[in-house]
């Protein structure tokens, strides 16, 4: 992959991902959960790009591991564990939520994504959505071992093999949970929350730098059109078979379904689509094409939202339920849509304050301990 430095439109992609998730929890869309899938693919692209460049530089292998993990930790840990500490204080003072003590061991070890099948499981908008951060952190833990230790050809082959095998992995997990007698909604969530389920999301994003697709694919716009047609066509077919209503809010992508093997094909279709989108934005052959898309993703407000999208993800559901719900939840779709704008502004404000006055202090330490190379911003 060529050294392209900071790509402004990728912050727009982050913004798109968090806004999708927020529309889902605000009951404006039923397909908004796909924003998490977009985050996974984008993380795979960015993290693999960092590691792929790192392996070609001089330096001890141990130093490279420490550099990656320390820099990642300084980006991820302060907000995450600060948020958990705040919840812990609330629990100690007000005993709220009363089952916080049950889940804090899982939350604090980034294994919360494996709690869905626990007996008497209870979700809570304060921390249920943090399952995806567990998946990301597990990826950050093991993936450097693959990229920095395996030979380049073996790395490429392994990643491609996982992408191909992923639908079978999801099928096997779905079969396993159903045979254990879990209800369909529990089995669907358990499959969706499993780290193995999303390896192809990370790897398909990672194949862009590993296979230098940004320079080798001459017409990435065609990939985007084909993957878009595939995703929309598969969603429409599933919607028609299901007999449900409200296609415009679901696009055939209901959350964590297994009845028609959605867990097998849905994630593959989405991963291909999102990887194709990223490829179009980073391609060396696409700078004069799709300018309209790039300009929209580089809009100043989208870039601002993308910059603090991590904080917005952490805060958004709690703000919706505990601060905004009395005004936001309405049976009238138009009113919910109208109120969504100030909701986004409020969540952005919380995340911006957190980023400027809390997270930024730790980000300064990244270059103090392990200076980055000349690449700009590996957030």
Low-confidence spans: 375-379
What is the typical, i.e. mean, pLDDT? 92
* Helical residues, percent: over 70%
| Tally of DSSP helical segments | 16
Query: What is the H/E order?
Result: HHHHHHHHHHHHHHHH
The biggest beta sheet is recorded as: none
Binned strand content: under 5%
**What is the CA-CA span between the terminal residues?**
18 Å
Overall shape: it is globular
Q: Rg from C-alpha positions?
A: 20 Å
Structure description:
By secondary structure, the chain is mainly alpha-helical. The chain has one domain. It is globular. The C terminus is likely disordered.
Summarize the structure.
The chain is mainly alpha-helical and 379 residues long.
List the helices and strands and how they pair.
Layout: H1 8-25, H2 34-55, H3 61-94, H4 100-108, H5 131-149, H6 152-179, H7 184-193, H8 199-210, H9 213-216, H10 220-242, H11 247-250, H12 262-282, H13 291-297, H14 300-307, H15 309-328, H16 333-369
Helix pairs in contact: 1-2, 1-13, 1-14, 1-15, 2-5, 2-8, 2-12, 3-4, 3-5, 3-16, 6-7, 6-8, 6-12, 8-12, 10-12, 15-16
Q: Keyphrases for this structure?
A:
379 residues; disordered C terminus; mainly alpha; single chain
